[in-house]
Amino acid sequence: MDTDVFAAHESNVRRYGRSFPTVFTKALGATIWDEAGKSYIDFLVGSGALNYGHNNANIVAPGIDYLAGGNILLSLDMNTVAKREFIEVFVDSILKPRGLSYKIQFPGPTGTNANEAALALARKYTGRSSVMAFTNAFHGMSLGSLAVSGSASTRNLGGVPRHDVIRVPYDGYPNGAFDSASYIDYVLGDPGSGIEKPAAIILETIQAEGGMNSASAGWLAEIQRICRKHSVILIVDDIQAGAGRTGEFFSFEFARIEPDIVCLSKSLSGSGNPLSIVLIRPEIDIWNPGEHSGTFRGNNLAFVTAGAMCKMWSERQFTASVERTAVKLQTHLDRLVAKYPYLIEQKRGRGLMAGLKFRSHLVVGRVHDIAFENGLLIESSGPNRDVIKVLPPITITDDELDRGIAILDQALKEQANGNCPSISSASNLASCDQRADRLNQHCGNHLSPER
Ligand code: PLP
Predict the structure, then answer these.
(1) Is 63 exposed, middle or buried (0-12, 13-18, 19+ CB in 10 A)?
(2) Is the CB of 42 under 6 A from ligand 1?
(3) Neighbours of 103 (CB within 10 A)
(4) What pLDDT digit, counting tens, does each position of 264-296 carry?
(5) Which among 266, 267, 268 is the best mutation to test ligand 1's pocket, defined by most ligand atoms within 8 Å of the CB?
C-alpha cells in the first residue's frame, strides 16, 4: 500500500493515517474498503460524523440529484430552496414532535464553530465573561472551545492564556463519590465562594473524547434547575452525542431537559458533509443582523442530505430499528465485560454511544492494532487513552454488528491468551487484577504508550 506521499508531504500532525496505516477508497454502510480490496467494519465512523453509515442511500440519493440538477451549492446565509426545505423538515420532524421551540443559527460548518457562536451569544446575553465547564470536557480546537475543554494537552494548544473558565467536576468525578451538582449550586449562591456567576454552563451529556463518561438523567435535570435558579445559560454541546447517536435524536431527551442553547454538527448532514447549527431559545436570540458570520454557513448539499436524514426520524420503523440495535450493542458489550474482567474495567456510555474502559491503555493499543489487522476500525479516548470507543453506525445491520464485535472479541482473546509470549502463565494468577497487571507489565515492552 503506497502511503509514502502522506509521510512525505502531510504535516506531522496527522493521526488516523498513522493508526490505520492503509489507504481507504470506498465505503458503504458500516463497511469501508482499502485500495487493496480489504474490508473493515467501521466502529469509528468519522468520530461520530457518520451515524447513518457511509453512503446511506436514503440520504445520499437526494444529494446526487441535487448535485446533478445544477442547484446552488454555496450561499453564505442567503435564502435558498434547499435551506428552506431543511428548516421546514427540521422543525416538523425533529423539533415539533419533541415539543421544542428554537431559533436556528447557521454558523461555520464545524462543531467548534457552533460552540464558539454559543459561547459568544451567552456572554453577550448575560453581559458576563466567565463560563463553567467540566472536567474531561472536549469542545473543539478553536481558542474558546479549547478553553472550556478539560485535557491539559488540548488546553495548552494555541500558546495563549485562557481566562474566564471555571472548571467544575462532571457527574461522577472523581470516582463517583462527589455530588458536583450540589457543589455548583452552593458556590453560585455563596458570595464568599470566590466564584463569580458565569454566563453559561457548557456540557456534553456523554463525554466521548473525555472517556465516554455519561451523565445521569437526574444530574442533567439538576444542572438545568441550577442554571435556571441562578440565571445561567445552559449550553448542551450535542456535537458528538446528538443527531441520533444515543438512540434518540438529541442526547438529552432521556433527561427531559430543554437546554437554552444546543450545538449540533458531525452527523447532522447525515452524509459526512460539514454542517453545524446552534439552536437558541427565542428570547436569547439577541444577535444583531450579520454580527456573527462565516463563509461556509450555506452548504446546500449538506442541507439536502440533512433534510433526508431528519425525515427518517418520522418513521417508526427507523426509530424502532435504532432502539433495537442499541440494545443489541449493549448486550454484546455486557458479554465482553463479563468475559474479560481482567482486561476491561467497565462498560461506558449509553445507547449506541458506547465505550469499554480498560485497566490499561497499553492493552487498548494492542487491541486496536489486532482489531485493525483483522478488519475493524476502533479508536481510543479518555485522558489516559484507556477507553475504546464503540461507535457503529446507528443503521448498522445485525450481520455487520456481529462481525465487528466478533473481531473485537478475537482481539481481546489474543491479547488475553498469549499474543504476548510471556503472559499465558498469567492465567494461573489468582485475581483478575493480578492478571491484568501481569498482562500490562509484559505487553508494555512492545507497546507504545502514545497513540
Ligand atoms: N464538541 C464535541 C463534543 C466533539 O466531540 C467535537 C469533536 O470531536 C467538537 C465539539 C469539535 O467538532 P469539530 O471537530 O467539528 O470542530
Answers:
(1) buried
(2) no
(3) 13
(4) 999 999 999 999 999 999 999 999 999 999 999
(5) 266
Task: Write the single-letter amino acid at 389.
Answer: K
In 189-248, at which residue ranges do the beta strands (DSSP E only) sit? 200-203, 206-207, 213-214, 233-237
C-alpha cell at 51: 451515524
Does ligand 1 lie within 6 Å of residue 306's CB atom?
no
Q: Break the chain into its structural domains and give their ranges.
A: 59-312, 316-443
For the segment 238-242, the average pLDDT, to the nearest whole number, is 98
Q: From the CB of 111, is ligand 1 less than 6 Å away?
A: yes
Set of cell numbers at residue 223? 444542572
Which residue lies with its CA nearest to atom 1 of ligand 1? 139
Q: How confident is the model at residue 1 (pLDDT cuts 50, 70, 90)?
A: confident
CA 355–ligand 1 middle distance (angstroms): 17
Across 178-202, average pLDDT: 97
Q: Write down the pLDDT at residue 176.
A: 86
pTM for the predicted model, two decimal places: 0.93
pLDDT in tens, 124-172: 999 999 999 999 999 999 999 999 999 888 888 878 888 899 999 999 9
Q: Which atom of ligand 1 is nearest to the CA of 110?
A: 15
The CATH topology of domain 316-443 is Aspartate Aminotransferase, domain 1 (3.90.1150)
Taking CA atoms only, the protein residue closest to ligand 1 atom 2 is: 139
**pLDDT tens digits for range 75-114:** 999 999 999 999 999 999 999 999 999 999 999 999 999 9
Q: How far is the CA of 168 from the centre of ligand 1 (A)?
A: 20
Q: 429 pLDDT exceeds 60?
A: no
State the closest ligand 1 atom to the C-alpha of 142, by its place in the atom list counted from 1.
Answer: 16
- Please report how many Cα atoms fall inside a 13 Å half-sphere around the Cα of residue 390, on the Cβ side: 32
Question: Cβ(136) to ligand 1 under 6 A?
Answer: no
145 CA → ligand 1 middle, Å: 9
Ligand 1 contact via 238 beta carbon (within 6 Å): no
Residues near 43 by beta carbon (within 8 Å), at least 6 away in sequence: 30, 376, 377, 378, 389, 390, 391, 392, 404, 408
Into which CATH architecture does domain 59-312 fall?
3-Layer(aba) Sandwich (3.40)
